[in-house]
Amino acid sequence: MVNRPRRLRLNQNIRALTRETRISTNSLILPIFLQEGNNIKRPISSLEGHFHYSPDRVSEEIEKALKAGINKFLLFGLPAEKDIIGSQGYDENGIIQQGIRKMKENYKDEIYIITDVCMCEYTSHGHCGILDSNYVDNDKTLDYLSKIAVSHAMAGADMVAPSDMMDGRIGRIRKDLDAHNLINIGIMSYAVKYASSFYEPFREAAGSTPSFGDRKSYQMDYHNRREAVKEARLDIDEGADIIMIKPALSYLDIIHEVSQLSNLPTAAYSVSGEYAMIKAAAKMGIIDEYKIMCESAVSVFRAGANILITYFAKELAESIRRGDIG
Ligand code: PBG
């Protein structure tokens, strides 16, 4: 026998030397939930270990993250008031705008802030846009998404991440950011976002469950792969800086395919349901939380992602530091 693949698996040193997938703490983004009010640190029951923070207390989370080596954040907001047009989403004193200013005041460029741009947390009906009877009106919604994105950037966000899945929003947001001279504000597009039941724990966390119907007329059907290529191509052409795929674990084929499409960085969002399943199974004593967390995260990078948004960001940073992965 000439070929003995087991030679390269003989011990930890040779395995570490020949790992094909390298992961850095620099590639991880931690989601943070901001809630309007003061002195709030409220546990999110569906996302164990995560909290709603009011802007005055969010530093507690940032400190922990920075200590672990994580300095990139994706912000979600829970406003005090909702209405049919989600006006708190673009209010200059909205929860995200307040939160960004506070975080940038305390940490300046030590942290990188990406904001989720969507309407579902701000609308009384919980849909991601402006309704025309029961249908989300695409083109009217673009006006609002663009206002939200510009207001986040004006408050100091480094990058905006539209997650609504309206057609044409990347082009529109790019145009309006540029018109406000916000030319260096990047766009990470939720380019390929499926209508997924893996978001359920998030909807509890963000209070964004639609009051009627579902999101299938704008988010993608999970039977489709070629459509993912179409969506990604459109966003690349419209000026996205980073292409994101969401969810991650059940969509590794999509991550692989989309990562081959262009030279743009490919991000994957390991969503709330993926996190909650691991936590729940570990609590039942049927899996090892740490090992499953490591294995799932590596699989996303192996598939082709360069960036991972994950509720396990701090814990993964520790496993990278220990050399268990990466
Ligand atoms: C907002 C948005 C959602 C998520 C990110 N941005 C919810 C949804 O589309 O229903 C899900 C994140 C997660 O599940 O972790 N539109």
From TrEMBL:
<feature type="active site" description="Schiff-base intermediate with substrate">
    <location>
        <position position="246"/>
    </location>
</feature>
<comment type="pathway">
    <text>Porphyrin-containing compound metabolism; protoporphyrin-IX biosynthesis; coproporphyrinogen-III from 5-aminolevulinate: step 1/4.</text>
</comment>
<keyword id="KW-0456">Lyase</keyword>
<comment type="subunit">
    <text>Homooctamer.</text>
</comment>
<comment type="function">
    <text>Catalyzes an early step in the biosynthesis of tetrapyrroles. Binds two molecules of 5-aminolevulinate per subunit, each at a distinct site, and catalyzes their condensation to form porphobilinogen.</text>
</comment>
<keyword id="KW-0350">Heme biosynthesis</keyword>
<keyword id="KW-0460">Magnesium</keyword>
<feature type="binding site">
    <location>
        <position position="231"/>
    </location>
    <ligand>
        <name>Mg(2+)</name>
    </ligand>
</feature>
<keyword id="KW-0627">Porphyrin biosynthesis</keyword>
<feature type="binding site">
    <location>
        <position position="120"/>
    </location>
    <ligand>
        <name>Zn(2+)</name>
    </ligand>
</feature>
<dbReference type="InterPro" id="IPR001731">
    <property type="entry name" value="ALAD"/>
</dbReference>
<feature type="binding site">
    <location>
        <position position="311"/>
    </location>
    <ligand>
        <name>5-aminolevulinate 2</name>
    </ligand>
</feature>
<feature type="binding site">
    <location>
        <position position="203"/>
    </location>
    <ligand>
        <name>5-aminolevulinate 1</name>
    </ligand>
</feature>
<dbReference type="GO" id="GO:0005829">
    <property type="term" value="C:cytosol"/>
</dbReference>
<protein>
    <recommendedName>
        <fullName>Delta-aminolevulinic acid dehydratase</fullName>
        <ecNumber>4.2.1.24</ecNumber>
    </recommendedName>
</protein>
<dbReference type="GO" id="GO:0006782">
    <property type="term" value="P:protoporphyrinogen IX biosynthetic process"/>
</dbReference>
<comment type="similarity">
    <text>Belongs to the ALAD family.</text>
</comment>
<keyword id="KW-0479">Metal-binding</keyword>
<keyword id="KW-0862">Zinc</keyword>
<dbReference type="InterPro" id="IPR013785">
    <property type="entry name" value="Aldolase_TIM"/>
</dbReference>
<feature type="binding site">
    <location>
        <position position="215"/>
    </location>
    <ligand>
        <name>5-aminolevulinate 1</name>
    </ligand>
</feature>
<dbReference type="Pfam" id="PF00490">
    <property type="entry name" value="ALAD"/>
</dbReference>
<feature type="binding site">
    <location>
        <position position="128"/>
    </location>
    <ligand>
        <name>Zn(2+)</name>
    </ligand>
</feature>
<feature type="binding site">
    <location>
        <position position="118"/>
    </location>
    <ligand>
        <name>Zn(2+)</name>
    </ligand>
</feature>
<dbReference type="InterPro" id="IPR030656">
    <property type="entry name" value="ALAD_AS"/>
</dbReference>
<feature type="binding site">
    <location>
        <position position="272"/>
    </location>
    <ligand>
        <name>5-aminolevulinate 2</name>
    </ligand>
</feature>
<dbReference type="GO" id="GO:0004655">
    <property type="term" value="F:porphobilinogen synthase activity"/>
</dbReference>
<dbReference type="GO" id="GO:0008270">
    <property type="term" value="F:zinc ion binding"/>
</dbReference>
<feature type="active site" description="Schiff-base intermediate with substrate">
    <location>
        <position position="193"/>
    </location>
</feature>
